[in-house]
Amino acid sequence: LIIFFGACENKKSVESESEGIVHQEVLADGFEIPWAIEVIGEENFLISERMGTLYHYENGALSKIKGIPKTKTFVVDRPYGGMMDISLHPEFSSNQMAYLAYVNENFHLSVVRFRMEDNSAQDLEIIFTSDQFSIGSRIEWQDNNHFFLSSGIGGTPGPTPGPQDLNDPRGKIFRLHADGSIPKDNPVLPGMKEPSGIWSYGHRDPQGLFYDVDDSILYSDEHGPLGGDELNVIIKGGNYGWPLFSYGLNYDLTPVSNMTEQEAAKNTILPLKYWTKDFRLAPSSLIKLKNSNFKDWNGSFLIGGLTYQSLIRYDPETEKTENVMPDIGRIRDIAQLPSGNLVILIDH
Among residues 331, 339, 318, which one has the least CA distance to residue 287? Predict the structure, then answer.
């Protein structure tokens, strides 16, 4: 589903815990496993679907984008990988360029860019390819020539270093030029002699990225194991600890590691906020509201909750977390419209 949320009152309105009356309307349905929504205009979006379809929604009509690369999913209890984030270049209005993160036919994470023309993908160019699968990936722009890309790894810590291994692309956030090349001002990480595409490491599964252009801060939300979901401030060259330390537990209730919080604070970057197993977000997306029509929410983070099938609000000033739209469905992505209202993508 794509659901529209407006801070107004009419016969389709619903009661929200912290906002009173909110207008709720289904704009489109019938998707299989929708993953990302990108706003072109007030009634103009792109929607990616995990199983490999990219849709264009415009003024109530839904069309498929032709010419998209084939994707692959890996099935455990449900499909993983496939098509993930869709993102517009900041100058999309003039260059019509879009960027797509997906798992390619070799089961490796890739990013392709293309020019949108008449609901088809033209001039496709693969600008990034890793040698590993990603369980979840987001694209977020820093400016017109730099974007961030997350690469996730799930499960319980394995026998290999995983996200601590700088030769392994999983559990990393990358920073790349718009053409996929490596910026010269990227960090030189331990054991390396020159910058790589890696901006930060030691992540588990960062499925939400948000760049605050006013404060020049990159935020990420991240799946923990059993508990330990995190909201992080991403710092250049930072090590975010997985699997050396976690506030969560392994799925068999054993500790992830023996490292203490005090030791982790000396060796890694601790989260801005974490949640225990008593409040399992399973965060899928991240946005920080500014100038929205939800005035009480401005300055707060909205997080898509998979486990609780809820829209979750975290207020960094009060440090309060609340389910503001409970039992709405597995929220995959959230976007703010030019009007200040919201669209929310739900994976049932």
Answer: 331
How is the chain split among helix, strand and coil, in percent rounded to 5? 5, 50, 45
Residue partners of 56: CB distance under 8 A and separation at least 6: 45, 46, 47, 62, 63, 64, 65, 119
Amino acid identity of residue 83, one-letter, is M
Contact 191, 166 (CB under 8 A): yes
Cβ 172 vs Cβ 162: under 8 Å: no
Give CA torsion, residues 229, 235, 236, 239, to 10 deg: -40
Burial letters 74-101, b for 16+ CB under 10 A, else e? eeeeeebbbbbbbbbbbebeeebbbbbb
Q: Given pLDDT bands bounded at 50, 70 and 90, which one contains residue 11?
A: very low
The overall pTM is greater than 0.85? yes
Beta-ladder partners of 226: 249
Backbone angles phi, psi at 42, to 5 degrees: -55, -40
Q: Which amino acid is at 185?
A: D
Q: Does residue 15 surpass a pLDDT of 70?
A: no
What Å distances lie between residue 122 and 95, 118, 125, 216, 231, CA to CA? 12, 9, 9, 32, 36
Note the Cα 86 to chain centre separation in Å.
10
The encoded tokens of residue 287 equal 């946005």
Residue 56, beta-bridge partner list: 46, 63
**Interior CA angle at 132 toward 126 and 137, to 5°?**
65
pLDDT band at 1 (very low <50, low <70, confident <90, very high): confident
Taking residues 126-148, report their average pLDDT. Answer: 97
